[in-house]
Amino acid sequence: NAGVTQTPKFQVLKTGQSMTLQCAQDMNHEYMSWYRQDPGMGLRLIHYSVGAGITDQGEVPNGYNVSRSTTEDFPLRLLSAAPSQTSVYFCASSSTRTPIKGDTQYFGPGTRLTVL
Amino acid sequence: KQEVTQIPAALSVPEGENLVLNCSFTDSAIYNLQWFRQDPGKGLTSLLLIQSSQREQTSGRLNASLDKSSGRSTLYIAASQPGDSATYLCAPWSNNDMRFGAGTRLTVKP
Q: Are residues A110 and B41, on separate chains, in Cβ contact within 8 Å?
């Protein structure tokens, strides 16, 4: 099992550019989510999905779009990048949305994004 | 809105010391609380999950306690090792949402 994979690992964008961060998991998990992590702050939920075709907003959704056409993939799109979106982005997956013992949430290694 | 605070932000100890990391949260109506470990440049790994009905949970040298009424959890690490060096984050689940603390960056010196 590869677990949760994210590409790219690093990305530099100019203000106004768009891009897609890729996330894939091979554990047949229904729940997938995107977080951003900024210095001195905890992870904040951007968007999540409880299954293919179902997505919802998290705490900080503005400026980001998601879709879930398959169980395995959950890409995050930045529509028009802004310097405030400079951050480290993590994708995660688990069997259920509510954490339960024995059902670990698996995190990808992260994408470090810089917007100039 | 749940606010999660972790103190201290950074901690450096010599190898072999027992240590305690603190987590406090403002909304005590939590369903459970997790402790995660994050190594530099990597994602998070779940260490322990405590249900709201539990007082503590143990895994090897790690022991997490939960005092829901006072909005506090602690992570106790026994006989610390250099390999324990990482950032430790706590994350209570409440109101159908999981909020993370900013973490405590732990350095264990040989």
A: yes
pLDDT for res A96: 85
pLDDT at residue A71, as a whole number: 96
B60 at interface of A, judged by CB pairs closer than 8 A: no
d(CA A86, CA A88) in angstroms, rounded, equals: 7
What whole-number distance in Å separates Cα of residue B42 and Cα of residue B85? 13
Q: Look-up: residue for tokens 């990808």? A: A108
CA A102 – CA A33 distance, rounded (Å): 19
Which residues lie below 8 Å from residue A92, measured CB to CB, with a gap of 6+?
Answer: A4, A32, A33, A34, A35, A105, A106, A107, A108, B43, B44
Tell me how far apart the alpha carbons of residues A58 and A31 are, in angstroms, rounded to a whole number: 13
Q: For the range B60-69, what are the long-range contacts, defined as Cβ-Cβ under 8 Å and sequence gap of 24 or more?
A: B62/B35, B64/B33, B64/B35, B66/B33, B68/B28, B68/B30, B69/B28
Q: What is the pLDDT of residues A9-29, one digit of tens each?
A: 999 999 999 999 999 999 999
pLDDT of B20 strictly over 90: yes
Residues 40-79 of A with CB under 8 A from B: 40-45, 59
B37–A contact, CB cutoff 8 A: no
CA contacts within 13 A on the Cβ side of B42? 12
Place of tokens 């897609």: A20
